[in-house]
Amino acid sequence: MRLLILYATDHGSTTGIAERLAADRKRHGDEVTVARLRETSHLDDYDGVIVGSAIHNGQWLPEATHAVDRLSSQWGDKPLWAFSVGSIGATTSFFGEKRTKAVRSRMGEPKAVATLRHTGHVQDAHRFAGAIAPGDWPGAGRVMFRVMGGHYGDARDWDEVDAWAESIHA
Ligand SMILES: Cc1cc2nc3c(=O)[nH]c(=O)nc-3n(C[C@H](O)[C@H](O)[C@H](O)COP(=O)(O)O)c2cc1C
Questions:
Q1: For residues 64 and 150, what is the distance between their CA atoms, to the nearest angstrom?
Q2: SS3 assignment, position 151
Q3: Which atom of ligand 1 is nearest to the CA of 7?
Q4: Neighbouring-strand partners of residue 81
Q5: Bridge partners of 6?
Q6: Does the Cβ of 56 fall within 6 Å of ligand 1?
Q7: Cβ contacts of residue 147 below 8 Å, gap of 6+?
Q8: Rounded to the nearest whole angstrom, what is the distance from the C-alpha of residue 76 to the centroid of ligand 1?
Q9: Per-residue pLDDT tens over the stretch 113-170
Q10: Where do the Flavodoxin-like domain residues begin and end (predicted)?
Q11: Domain 2-169 sits in CATH 3.40.50.360
Q12: Cα(20)–Cα(7) distance, rounded to whole angstroms?
């Protein structure tokens, strides 16, 4: 499969996940291209597309949301996969177990993923935890993060990323 992996990032942890997915898929024999969503305008050369973004304020980054709208007429019949990178993923989180459980159960889907489902053939949508450093937050966000008991660092679960890439193969 000629696979295109498109992503949007603010601080780089989503880039790492996009690159890991690419390496996994290449190992399975796919021809893979990785590109920034904001720099992509043509999808003709690809059989399938993985689209992902960091989450800010519960939504994909504006550049990703705009790109999903801009590219909507080009998805056609291509299989699509979506991934979101935020504070709480399917297996890991910036927060303790209790808060993670409570928040995970009421997390809605970003609007851009709903748009993707509406305009294309989404096979699966997944949420990964990313990475966070104190300097990433504006002042109020830093205080809120501390109050909520957040932990700084890299919460990416590479086994989870590998397993998701494998599920795409299946
Ligand atoms: C300004 C800001 C807002 C954020 N808002 C959210 C949010 O609403 N929900 C969430 O799960 N994570 C949120 N995060 C955490 C990021 O999604 C997380 O750090 C992610 O790994 C960032 O990806 P990136 O390194 O590719 O930019 C926020 C981070 C920042 C800096």
A1: 26
A2: coil
A3: 26
A4: 50, 124
A5: 35, 51
A6: yes
A7: none
A8: 30
A9: 999 999 999 999 999 999 999 899 888 889 999 999 999 999 999 999 999 999 997 6
A10: 3-169
A11: yes
A12: 12
Given ligand 1 and candidates 7, 11, 109, 146, which is best to mutate, with the most ligand atoms within 8 Å of its CB?
A: 11
Q: Would you kindly state where each structural domain of the chain is located, as residue ranges?
A: 2-169
Cα-to-chain-centroid distance, residue 31 = 20
- Structure confidence by residue, pLDDT tens digits, 33-77: 999 999 999 999 999 999 999 999 999 999 999 999 999 999 999
pLDDT at res. 170: 62
Answer for the pair 75, 44: CB distance below 8 angstroms, yes or no: no
Using most ligand atoms within 8 A of CB, pick from 7, 10, 151, 160 the residue to mutate for ligand 1: 10
Would you state the structure tokens that stand for residue 130, as one six-digit string? 């990313």
